[in-house]
Amino acid sequence: MKPLYTAVATANGGREGRTRSDDGKIDMALSMPKELGGGGGEGTNPEQLFAAGYAACFESALRLVARMQKKAVPAETSITAKVTIGQEGAAFRLAVELHGHLPGLPQEEAATLVATAHQVCPYSAATRNNVEVKLFANEVLLP
After folding, report:
1. Is 131 helix (H, G, I), strand (E, B) or coil?
2. Which of the four pLDDT bands, split at 50, 70 and 90, describes residue 51?
3. DSSP 10
4. Residue ranges of the domains in the chain?
5. What is the percent of the chain where pLDDT is above 70?
6. CA-to-CA distance for 85 and 71, rounded, in angstroms?
């Protein structure tokens, strides 16, 4: 791999602490959701941060794929990432749903773009064969 960019962030205090990027663009309080036994404070949590990053990266991958295929993607296109944390035995695991909203595109075309973006997105590559990822195009689950 030829490195292009490296992001650096440091967390202190775990899920009840704070996270900061080395450039100061991220400086956020973290709080444990009530569903995980925490107080559900004002801060964000690792699952929300992962969902935000995955959604942004995946939409960029989808738009890249569309450009490469010379297909127009509606400006209203969006990706919603749902990241779930759960327990499996003594370990904790993540599961992801990626919902591609491509209004006005025929279902088959939307599904092809979402499936192809899943092959291109770095987050998808990082989770492949390790995290269950379900893909949806216009609320239809892809096989």
Report:
1. coil
2. very high
3. E
4. 1-44, 46-141
5. 100
6. 35
The beta-strand segments (E) located in 17-131 are 18-21, 27-29, 78-88, 91-101
Please give the angle made by the CA atoms of 73, 79 and 80, to the nearest 5 degrees. Answer: 160
Are 113 and 62 spatial neighbours (Cβ–Cβ below 8 Å)? yes
Per-residue pLDDT of 79-124, as tens digits, reads 999 999 999 999 999 999 999 999 999 999 999 999 999 999 999 9
**Is 46-141 in CATH node 3.40.190.10?**
no
- pTM value surpassing 0.90: yes
User: For the domain bounded by 1-44, which CATH number is listed?
Assistant: 2.20.25.10
Residue type, 108: E
